[in-house]
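ASSEMBLY PREDICTION REQUEST
Request ID: AP-0331
Submitted by: J.K., bench scientist
Number of chains: two
Total residues: 445
Priority: normal
Notes: Please return the full assembly, not individual chains.
Input sequences:
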Amino acid sequence: MSLTRRVHDVRTAWWLRGCECADAATRLHGRPSINFEGGRIIVGRRCAIGSVPVTSHFVAGPDATLDIGDDVIIGHGAAIAAYERVEIGRGTQIAPFAIIMDTNFHGGSGDQSVHHDCRPVVIGSDCRIGSRVTITRGVTIGDGAEVLAGSVVSSSVPAGACAGGARARLLGRAGDPAVRWEGTAAMVPLLIMDAFTLTGVPDRDAAMTDIPGWTTGRLEELSSAIARQFGARVPPARLAAARNVSEIIDIVEGDRRGGGAR
Amino acid sequence: MAVVWLRDCDSVGAKTRTFFRPHIHNRGRIDIGRGVRLNSNWAPLELVTGPRGAIEIADGVYINYGTLISAQERVRIGANVMVGNYSIIADTDIPGIAEPAGAPTVEARPVEIGDGAWLAARVTVLPGARIGAGAVIAAGSVVAGEIPAGAVAGGIPARVLRQSAAPDESSMTGPARGEAGAR
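STATUS: Completed
Returned structure:
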């Protein structure tokens, strides 16, 4: 074993002292902040935790368990706090600036005035959590699910699904290129929201006739927004024929594919 | 100090300055142009490349503190680009941490930011994103896919909010920004 490796291992062991670590192969990139307020923090095998450029911090409140599985990767700037139970399954990858807490309130240590109404957070195995995602208490994320960058997850995500938005909506299956942020499935409902100045993102199966102002000249605006975003020329008349949001997604996707083939 | 603190970069242009110490983890290639300013006050700035990764920062770029730029394949930042604090510009989904030896290679999609673009604070640029010359990205946005030149875009994900009437004016060919880069 090389000297640098040994120094690295000693440093890792010192920085993670108090945690229940399965082995020394865990790699720390910068020093994380670890607060024990009476609970346990379990770190699995071969984990990687980033704290550069922004420190990641981990908190385990009284009798709480923060369980990080094997092969988990956590980017910098993470804030992960357990006051009852937070579980991160094996092989899950968490991008920078994630906030994962099983309580709505991040109390200071020894602050008796704080009453934590906790609901455990469970993140399955092989999940992919994007940058700057906030996961609120009581959320369960199924195995292999994906959460797109910038999302706020306040309800559970089934296994293998992809969710995105604030609050996060189900967009499709994880790994499908159409359900990336730049894909039509994620983007078109937002363009509809912008064009018709709706207060919320319309569901995929929302009927277009239920959208206020659907028959007015706003269709022009939607058409030009789609043109700006995807380079697809969909005339307002074709949009007017759509019955629901899902059909508009199909029209735009079809036009893009056709445009790509030309 | 720039000479010392940027010694792990492959090339650094003249008059490039660092404010406090950036973190450089270069296992591939990092090229920094002339007159670049890198701010690492309050939170350091971090540049990371994997074995096959390349970061190219063109002339006159300003990058504010706490920003992470990570390349497993290629990240290019055009001339006179400004990047706000705590931004993330990366060509992989989980950036910044070197992949474990023997692990399957992560999928990287190159990122390109055009000349004279302005990214405000806390912008996340996702893998595969291409931001056109002179585009402005609003604070807190998540950029995916393509943003046309001269556009003002924002939101999660970033949508085009306004298309600048004359994209040429806001790009680096414009008089004001061109001068800033020449300094």
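REVIEWER COMMENTS: Chain A touches chain B at residues 27, 29, 46, 48-50, 52-54, 73, 75-77, 93-97, 128, 130-132, 148-151, 165-166, 180-182, 186-187, 190-191, 194, 225, 228-229 (CB under 8 Å).
SIGN-OFF: pending second reviewer
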